[in-house]
Amino acid sequence: MATSLPWLAAGGAIDRLMARAFAWMTPALVLVCTVLVLPAAYVAWLSLTASTYGQAPEYVGLANYAKVLGDPYFWRAMRNTLVIVVVVVHVELLLGLGMALLFNSGVPMRRLMLAAVLAPYAVSEVSAAVVWRFLFDMDAGPANWLLQGLGLPALEWSVVPSHGLALVILLSIWLHLPFTFLILYAARLAIPGDLYESARIDGATPWQAFRRITIPLLMPAILLASLFRYIFVFRLFSEVWLMTGGGPARTTEVVGVYLYQEAFRYNAFGPASATGWIMVVVSMALGSIYIWALRRDMVSRAR
Fold first, then answer.
1. Which of 15, 78, 99, 287 has its CA 20 to 30 A from that of 258?
2. Could you read off the pLDDT of 30-76 as tens digits, one per residue?
3. Torsions phi, psi of 76, nearest 5?
4. What is the residue-averaged pLDDT of the chain?
């Protein structure tokens, strides 16, 4: 009996420690429930009802989801969103990887160049959209003057839908490229230089070292950056709303703008909530692919 007392005392100490830890975590859990869980549950319930200003919610089941999925404007917005996501994420990855390798190999005035690269991340999306609207203005925009001076067609982003989407893509890349660059640059700095020295001694060419050392060791960072950017770009709203407003004739809408239109222009809270949950499901599907790939890569390295 006496030999079991230390174990009982240790168990009691662990219980007290866990109770204290839970007490410290309680405010964070309450905040998460208040800010995330409860609003998500409310939106899920609202997506099953027909409601608007001055009208009590009426349960309609999955009718809102059927309405959204049968709306051609929604599918156009989804197509625009997927085009922007694919182009933005992959162009950012290529540019971010190239810049990370360039900075790692050594550039003159590295601190100044690093500050210049990171500067767009300090600019608000509203300010950036206002500046870009002026730069590409059809009548007074210096960017369009430069394009025409080089013999290239001007970006008629307020008239031609493809030009509007192209301008949104350029703006999004310019704003968020520093995020991708930082992740890849930090991962590149973490690769030991001894690996490249050993590869050089063994006769490996720079391209072979890039394929066999750099890319495999950067793959977790590439997948992580892709995951975050896929989720963030899929929720794109401000760049499109401030640049084109979804026009002309709703041809440059993305899913975030479609949701906003349903909720605050047409006052259809049920379809807007259903659109929000469709966005959540699609984002989770995209994210699960990258999480699975990241987990597989980490498990293969641990073996």
1. 287
2. 887 777 788 888 888 888 888 877 777 888 888 889 999 998 999 99
3. -65, -45
4. 83
The pLDDT assigned to 74 comes to 92
The answer to whether 50 touches 60, Cβ cutoff 8 Å, is yes
Within 190-214, residue ranges assigned H as helices are: 193-201, 206-209
63-302: what fold? MetI-like fold (1.10.3720)
Handedness of CA 146, 148, 151, 153 (dihedral sign): positive
The residue ranges of the chain whose pLDDT is under 70 are 1-15, 294, 297-303
Residues facing 58 on adjacent strands: 50
Contact 85, 230 (CB under 8 A): yes
Contact predicate 11/4, CB 8 Å: no
C-alpha R_g of the chain: 25
CB 117 within 8 A of CB 111: no
Residues in the chain: 303
Tell me if the bond preceding 6 is cis, omega within 30° of 0. Answer: no
Q: What is the pLDDT of residues 111-139, one digit of tens each?
A: 888 888 888 888 888 888 888 888 887 77
Which sequence spans correspond to the domains of the chain?
A: 2-46, 63-302
The SS3 call for residue 58 is strand
Query: What pLDDT was estimated at residue 300?
Result: 66
pTM greater than the 0.85 cutoff = no
Tell me the residue type at 271.
P
Angle between helix axes 38-46 and 269-302 (nearest 10 degrees) is 130
First to last CA, the chain: 44
